[in-house]
């Protein structure tokens, strides 16, 4: 027992600060979950009375209900993962609603916030499109001779009508509320927000302007798309679409349900649907041809999928090629089932040493045989469980024997429902920690082996965006510990949502309220049934938050309007170029886009500098740009320290040196802080790669 406890204590001591940040993140998520249930009901009821369109407003704030779906489209019942632990919580002192305000104070505050953020995101895209041809060196136009007529001042470019209307409503908001003009507030709010949401990517100021920043622009290339391609020639058409959409990183589904897509010397069988060609070899070649990184996406502990059995000519109860050959490697639920009722996947026992060695060998084979840029761990967890419904997993032979040897207790007798017995509660917590540790130690050893075998390889993990406690109890996936310790280079969040508001709630705890020194967090967007306008809005949100890129799930859903939107706003641009081997260059490119934006605002008289400090500030901005360029071309410890120091100074000066005259000035300042924070993260990440 001491061994298990020491491991957990060591992890806690390593990440005490991130743990504190995660506590704040959990508080935020509790509030957000509570608020959604309150706000959606209030808005649906009150706006339907006032305007007759309440249901439409409620829909814009409705959860997808599938935000925890796996990258491989794992189907599970809603009780196991789509209900937040904090749902149903109500504030102990509900906000009092004035009789004169049928919307309610909470609702009007949220309406204002949503309007401000929507305005800010639209304006971010607009500013990027206007500034893309600006020089990177900041300058102030000399207007001192204007009175004599020798210099004509620049005529400010008027904002688009949508932004003008949004800015006016933000300015009028409090006055309208104070005057009791609630119907006018709701009418104008609906009109303005709808105009900002109506296909912004087709707006004449934004379309065909390549507004994406330098970033990781990744997509999951799923098995179905690979099988449909049928050959390297067919796969080339898929990569052509990726290139047009601005994609620079491809996660190729290399092992799915126990089947590799390549002819393996270790796995029992290649996927029969791709016999006759090697899709991974083809993808690597195409990645080089199209200047894209190719990462092998590997299912780890999920070893079979009954939903796919018919496709490969197997009976419904076929456990997959691995467990068919080695049934002693299986994991079981607490009732002795290979698959938890209602789910479709069999799982290996992570505690089994032979299982772990088999997976190490598969990963090594991929890294040695193919020139992949990275490997992504998927299904690096146990299957979904619902402890309250006594639906538990992890009772493989090896796991039970090892835990009993450590504690003297067979875990099959344990339950989270311990009847108040502190001894049983203690052992249940140890059983959760034991399984969580088996996953985390596998990640640590697999990463170490790969990095020794292939220095410079990028290791990522596809993980859930749920809160820490929920993941540990239902999946035994403690990815924050992996990030804190630098066990993986990228954490790729499966943060799937049908609205931008819900998307932000899922990712904010991990990209804003948490920080990992040497690991980048990449949010994921699910394209299935997602309108192009919402996809664009979520992409723009990521550009305004401290994130280094995005991941799109999946290639099978990259079509129609979404494909056109990506081609129009993200494709055919130098900004699409990215390499995990040169993150300093990405940081420099990000900073240059910020310089161009400030230059355009200065020229357009929307950034008013403090006269006493203007020249000094501009000099500092330009010097940081030069230092970043030098760091990208000639990395050194001196340049690294200079960049860190100057970035910190610049962050501290924002808001004190100038006045912003944009549609949403507070949002603009927060966005600039976030963009500088992203650059700092890229620089820190870069340092660990050298």
What does this protein structure show overall?
The structure is a single chain. This protein is an alpha/beta fold and 690 residues long. 51% of the residues lie in helices and 9% in strands. The protein has 24 helices and 13 strands. β10, α19 and β11 form a beta-alpha-beta unit. The protein is globular. The N terminus is likely disordered.
- Distance N terminus to C terminus? 39 Å
Q: How many runs of DSSP E, i.e. beta strands?
A: 13
Uncertain runs: 1-99, 143-153
What general outline do the C-alpha atoms trace?
globular
Give the mean pLDDT.
Answer: 84
Counted by DSSP, the helix tally is 24
Give a quick rundown of the structure.
Helices cover about 50% and strands about 10% of the residues. It has about 700 residues and is α/β, with parallel strands linked by helices.
Descriptive labels:
8-stranded parallel beta barrel, alpha/beta, 690 residues, 24 helices
Secondary-structure map:
Elements: H1 2-14, H2 16-50, H3 54-60, H4 78-81, H5 105-131, H6 161-178, H7 182-197, E1 216-221, H8 223-229, H9 232-244, E2 249-256, E3 259-260, H10 279-289, E4 293-299, E5 302-305, H11 306-309, H12 321-325, E6 345-347, H13 353-369, E7 374-378, H14 397-407, H15 422-453, E8 458-464, H16 468-474, H17 479-485, E9 490-494, H18 500-511, E10 520-526, H19 532-544, E11 549-553, H20 560-569, H21 583-603, E12 607-609, H22 614-633, H23 637-653, E13 658-660, H24 665-689
Parallel strand pairs: 1-2, 1-11, 2-4, 4-7, 7-8, 8-9, 9-10, 10-11
Antiparallel strand pairs: 2-3, 5-6, 12-13
């Amino acid at each position: 027992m001491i061994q298990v406890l020491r491991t957990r204590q060591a992890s806690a001591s390593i990440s005490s600060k991130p743990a504190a940040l995660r506590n704040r993140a959990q508080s935020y998520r509790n509030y957000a979950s509570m608020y959604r249930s309150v706000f959606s009901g209030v808005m649906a009821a009150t706006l339907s009375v006032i305007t007759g369109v309440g249901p439409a407003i409620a829909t814009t704030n409705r959860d997808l209900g599938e935000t925890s779906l796996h990258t491989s489209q794992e189907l599970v019942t809603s009780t196991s993962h789509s209900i937040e632990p904090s749902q149903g919580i109500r504030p102990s002192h509900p906000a009092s609603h004035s009789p004169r305000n049928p919307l309610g104070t909470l609702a009007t505050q949220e309406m204002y916030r949503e309007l401000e953020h929507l305005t800010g995101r639209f304006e971010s895209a607009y500013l990027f499109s206007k500034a893309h041809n600006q020089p990177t060196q900041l300058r102030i136009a000399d207007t001192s001779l204007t009175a004599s007529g020798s210099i004509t001042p620049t005529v400010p470019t008027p904002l688009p009508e949508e932004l003008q209307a949004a800015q006016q409503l933000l300015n009028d908001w409090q006055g309208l509320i104070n005057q009791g003009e609630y119907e006018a507030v709701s009418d104008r709010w609906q009109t303005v927000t709808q105009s900002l949401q109506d296909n912004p990517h087709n707006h004449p100021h934004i379309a065909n302007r390549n507004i994406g920043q330098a970033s990781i622009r990744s997509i999951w290339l799923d098995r179905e798309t690979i099988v449909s391609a049928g050959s390297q020639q067919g796969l080339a058409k898929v990569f052509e679409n990726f290139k047009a959409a601005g994609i620079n990183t491809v996660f190729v589904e290399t092992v799915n349900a126990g089947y590799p897509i390549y002819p393996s010397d270790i796995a029992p069988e290649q996927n029969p649907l791709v016999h006759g060609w090697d899709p991974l070899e083809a993808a690597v070649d195409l990645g080089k041809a199209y200047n894209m990184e190719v990462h092998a996406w590997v299912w780890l502990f999920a070893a079979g999928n009954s939903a796919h059995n018919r496709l490969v000519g197997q009976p419904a109860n076929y456990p997959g090629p691995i467990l068919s050959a080695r049934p002693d490697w299986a994991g079981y639920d607490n009732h002795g089932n290979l698959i938890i009722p209602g789910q479709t996947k069999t799982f290996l026992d992570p505690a089994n040493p032979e299982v772990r060695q088999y997976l190490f060998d598969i990963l090594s084979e991929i890294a040695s045989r193919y020139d992949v840029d990275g490997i992504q761990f998927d299904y690096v967890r146990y299957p979904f469980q619902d402890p309250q419904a006594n639906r538990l997993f992890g009772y493989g032979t090896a796991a039970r024997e090892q835990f009993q040897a450590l504690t003297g207790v067979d875990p099959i007798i344990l339950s989270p429902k311990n009847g108040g017995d502190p001894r049983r509660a203690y052992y249940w917590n140890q059983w959760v920690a034991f399984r969580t540790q088996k996953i985390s130690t596998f990640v640590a050893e697999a990463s170490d082996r790969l990095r020794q075998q292939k220095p410079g390889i990028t290791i990522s993990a596809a993980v859930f965006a749920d809160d820490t406690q929920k993941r540990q109890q239902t999946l035994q996936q403690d990815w924050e510990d992996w990030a804190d310790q630098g066990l993986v280079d990228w954490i790729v969040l499966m943060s799937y949502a049908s609205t931008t508001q819900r998307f932000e709630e899922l990712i904010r705890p991990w990209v804003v309220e948490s920080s990992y020194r040497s690991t980048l967090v990449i949010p994921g967007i699910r394209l299935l049934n997602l309108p192009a306008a919402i996809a664009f809005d979520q992409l723009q949100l990521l550009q305004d938050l401290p994130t280094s890129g995005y991941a799109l799930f999946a290639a099978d859903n990259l079509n129609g309007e979404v494909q056109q939107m990506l081609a129009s706003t993200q494709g055919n641009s130098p900004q699409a170029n990215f390499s995990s081997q040169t993150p300093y260059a990405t940081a420099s490119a990000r900073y240059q886009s910020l310089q161009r934006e400030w230059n355009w605002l200065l020229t357009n008289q929307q950034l008013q500098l403090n006269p006493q400090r203007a020249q000094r500030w501009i000099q500092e901005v330009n010097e940081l740009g030069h230092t970043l360029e030098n760091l990208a071309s000639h990395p050194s410890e001196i340049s690294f320290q200079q960049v860190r120091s100057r970035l910190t100074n610049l962050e501290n000066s924002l808001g004190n040196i100038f006045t912003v005259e944009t549609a949403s000035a507070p949002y603009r300042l927060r966005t600039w802080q976030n963009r500088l924070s992203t650059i700092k993260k890229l620089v820190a990440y870069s340092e660990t790669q050298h």
